[in-house]
């Protein structure tokens, strides 16, 4: 189960809405082995696409160095879908490289105006498992 603060959920939503119609993406870091998301890190979608996200490689390198320096790891990796439901696509699954992370997806598609489709998944070796989300 993903346990996450309302403040972090609100930050993800704000980023997703601000970047719409392109997909937004980012990371929420936490202390190593804690499974506790604490530090919100919005990233730039280098693909600048409504159907695909890609972390900028230099920004990602800087992030991992910073995480190492702070004894943190990516607890949540998030992105938005702009015209489909908040469920991992085949591409999302193929690029999921952090087996310990919670993969959070939100949908900003128009028919959801005002709705909150916020979902979390574990993706390990191509297997997707949806998990409950507890907002605290």
Automatic annotation (TrEMBL):
Keywords: Hydrolase, Metal-binding, Metalloprotease, Protease, Zinc. InterPro entries: JAB_dom_prok, JAMM/MPN+_dom, MPN, VirAsm_ModProt. This is Unannotated protein. The keyword Ribonucleoprotein does not apply. One of its GO terms (biological process) is proteolysis. PROSITE patterns: MPN (PS50249). Residues 2-127 form the MPN domain. It comes from freshwater metagenome. The keyword Thylakoid does not apply. Pfam families: Prok-JAB. GO terms for molecular function: metalloexopeptidase activity; zinc ion binding.
